[in-house]
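thought: fold this chain, then report.
action: predict
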Amino acid sequence: MMNLILLPCEIGSNQGGNPAMSAFKKAILSGLDKTQILDRLRGLKYKSESHSQFGEDVHIEGYYRRLKHELSVEVNDGYIVDIGAFSPIMHSNSYNFFKRGWKSINIDPTPGTKNRFDRIRSSDINLELAVASVEGVSTFYVFGRPSVWNTMSETAAQVAEELTGIRPEKVPVQIRRLDSILDEFAPKDKKFEILSIDAEGLDEDILKSSNFSKYRPRIVLVEVHSAELNNISQHPVVSLMYSEKYVLHSWINPNFMFVDAEYSLHRDI
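observation:
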């Protein structure tokens, strides 16, 4: 005879959207035994909603769980620098962490971006500018406000125009180095945990604008579109990060996720 565990509730009643209760009801009604039901309920502990475009935020959360389990390093707070932040919620690598009280420096040159972030994430630092190794003013190609096609790269803009049939608006944009931005805005009371870069091919130049000796995030997430599995180790972004003593933790295509070698889960590296 099947052994079932029961909670003091009516299986048919509405429990206000409680996910554990909902899972319990489904498990009971599907005829699972006690062990199977408990396994499903335990799984809810690690269930996360992703707001990133490719699930990067959930992948990072998984890394933090393993970091705690394997190296006894627990991370519950910190700050993020999100370059190419795009949107306060949709396709955001930082929004899940924002909801938990983390601080974020959100950077995107698309006109109107600062206003959108200020409305929804007013406790963050929101900057409407571009990042590169040489400061000044340059041209930004705008396909939409926002749009995943917006870029600082003339070559990328030409490709996007051919693919979309949209002629981009050219707008002047201020350029600052990342180390300069951090000198001014880095929170003093939080550790730099995550650097996220989505800059349509300008990632290497952005990385060169930082000072990894002074500002050292535990995780660096870089979106690249020119990588192939058989030549990842030769990719210039990988070589640059290795020189800064970071290791490639994973490839969440099209993103490289690097971690500071001190916190690598592959201790033989």
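thought: worth noting. The chain has two domains: 16-47, 56-130+178-263.
final: tokens above.
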